[in-house]
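Need tokens for this chain, all 449 residues.
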Amino acid sequence: MLYTAAAPAADRPLSPLRQELQSRLDSLARVHRVPGAQLAVHTGTHTLSVHTGTADALTGTPFTADTAVPLGSVTKLGTAAAVLLLADDGDLDLDEPAAELLPEFRLLPEVTVRHLLSHTAGLPTGPDSDSAAGTTTTRYLSAVCTAQSALFPPGTGFSYSNAGYVAVGRIMSEVTGMTWQEALRALLLEPLGIVPALLGDATPARPVATGHALNTATGLVRPAHQNLAPVEAPAGALLASAEDLVTLGRAVTGRSTVLPASAAARMRRSEPAADPGALADSWGLGLALFQQDGRVWCGHDGNAQGTSCHLRAEPDSGVVVAFTGNAGGATALWRDLAADLTRLTGIRVPTSPVTARRGRAVPLPECAGTYRNGGAEYAVKLDGAGTPTLSVDGDCPIPLVCYPDLSCDLVDPATGRHEPGGRFHRDPATGTIDRLQISGRTARRTGTV
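Here are the structure tokens for all 449 residues:
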């Protein structure tokens, strides 16, 4: 039974349920070697919050309910919500060309603010954080906003892009006269009662968690350094707790006076051509959309250096589930915890998109070629048996399994396990395969191999 305002947790007492959730979080954190984690569940009437472990494995600092965790890409949800507030006030139009606000888009005049928010602008991902560390926003955007870099005409496809949110952050600055950080605090975080915490804060106003990585040689978990470039802040610099994410989740379901219900509904509306492949079932304005039992959940996932954070919200019932963990293994912890939530509470939280039956695997020799997204090169080759393999920037090739609808799975070479990877796309005019989408990022075909 799904939580509703009328019948929380099948009328189970909250205290025993909280104890069960605490026990499972403690146990799974040990299994997955995650130093610290938080889980917050809003049932429609109550919020249950549990946490475990340490914020820093070296210092042993306790992980508390108030500890803020680097959210990675969940930051984009906050950036998008702030832009919707500006649009609701009439300070900008979601369908106006970005070039009217940012001169760097003069070569891409058809790209709109809506395209940027929904990853349908055709922009590449953008340079990695180390490469972007010493650049300015103007130089960053000038490098990606070119006809040569465009992956597809705006509004005709989906490619997850940090560069798009770098542009959105710059638009927020142009419209408000504030930095992105100042605008996010003033427009969204402080009105919601969230104590702001951002990567780069010299003196954080609240306790913060360190990300961690597992050293497979020694078996030890060690702190990881956050290397997000300052220019990338609108795409990934926010820190928050699971309880803060519940607050954000309630806002995007229209249950907050800060974000008007009409603006929240615009965020949750599926955008045309926004097919995110393995990331979600569809995409709105800053929100991933997931199908589950006839309902549409919204939310976002994010990974910083050594953290994994997840938010899911179901607008009809008001149920919100938020998780943060400070190690790479927290993604697997989240999936196991979501399964436990179903058993303990009846809440079926979607952790991945619905995968339809696609028929039997088929050979697809015509997919072999090189594909490019900005500076990243994807090479698809055929092995001796004619099986396609994928290599990104020269890494070890991973086998692909292709299906009649041009979707494909990635095959773990060690276990043989299949994971939904993405799909190939045909040029509608010529019928030839001209694009590859892997994990939500699209690469344009540039040659043969």
